[in-house]
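Hey, I'm writing a tutorial for new members on how sequence and structure tokens pair up, and I'd like a real worked example in the thread rather than a made-up one. If someone can provide the structure for the chain below, I'll link this post from the tutorial.
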Amino acid sequence: MLLVMPQHDSANLAIRCSCGSVQGTAEGVTPANTNRLLCYCDDCQAFVHYLERPKEFLDPNGGSDVVQMSAGRIRFSEGQDKLACVRLTKSGLVRWYSSCCNWPLGTTMRSRQFAFVGLIRSSMESTTNGSAVDEAIGPVRARVQSRFAVGNTENLDASDKPPFGVLMRVARILLGARFRGDHLKSPYFDSQSAEPVVAPRVLS
């Protein structure tokens, strides 16, 4: 029997900080080229608290609704000079935000060789084709890092580690991005030096 997978129109999702100084787009987004999960890890929680925006970006158990995709899909059209970033440790991920209003703008690997970014769901809006954001990015596929969840976790449907299927989705996104050369298109890294466009501040 031939199985026909459902086709989804791609959507362009608007990325903007709360004051509008930084604006951009995540281009050609579909459920097939993204991975959506709720992450309860202490680093994601610490980052949002650093931005002083926990009520806007964390659920009652400290979870962040994260949409992972190739960083090559991201284009910033305004406010690149407002980009700022931190690392929670010297070897940690690079966590990007707007210096104008402390709005999260993505989490990347330390090196541009891995063209991968995680965006918080509520920082995106649908643009060109009218598709709802949730239709474009698909459902939450896992709830992970449960050991760091806060509050009443008695009925929390989450696991500590990502399911195997989710890991395979992430691997496919990474490999596809690498084959397309998306690591050369990431707006978070300088095209010549391959360094972050802004030097990350390492938090104590």
